[in-house]
Amino acid sequence: MTTRVERSYRGISERLAIRYLENLGGERVDEDAVDGGGWTATLSSESVGVGPTLSLTEVTVAFEFDDDVDEAEREALIEAFTRKAMRAGG
């Protein structure tokens, strides 16, 4: 059994998100998937409206963790990715 955690990030591209996941120890295994040995991340994206005339790309990352990855390790990986994603815009 695995633990699945989804997070969405706006203003970042899938390409950049994959690069960040690779920097965190993952290896790209598919067009939209990264395997980190104990975790995998699958990405999807869509354009979302922000106000009447502006739209942004929203990337959803579905992290799946093996059972032997404890909660602290899961949270550390997601937090490290989130910090990278939050600074992507500037």
Protein topology:
Blueprint: E1 3-10, H1 14-23, E2 27-30, E3 33-35, E4 39-50, E5 54-65, H2 71-86
Antiparallel strand pairs: 1-5, 2-3, 3-4, 4-5
What does this structure look like?
- By secondary structure, this protein is an alpha+beta fold.
- The protein has one domain (3-86): Ribosomal Protein S8, Chain: A, domain 1 (2-Layer Sandwich), CATH 3.30.1370.
- The chain has helices at 14-23, 71-86, and strands at residues 3-10, 27-30, 33-35, 39-50, 54-65.
Biggest pleated sheet? 5 strands, antiparallel
Helical residue percent band = 25-40%
Distance between the termini: 38 Å
CATH class call: Alpha Beta
> Based on CA inertia axes, which overall geometry fits?
elongated
Rg, alpha carbons = 13 Å
- Give me the secondary-structure category: alpha+beta
CATH fold title: Ribosomal Protein S8, Chain: A, domain 1
Number of domains: 1
pLDDT averaged residue by residue: 93
Number of strands: 5
The CATH superfamily appears as Molybdopterin cofactor biosynthesis MoaD-related, C-terminal domain
- Lateral strand order in the biggest sheet: 1-5-4-3-2
- Run of helices and strands: EHEEEEH
Proportion of beta-strand residues = 35-45%
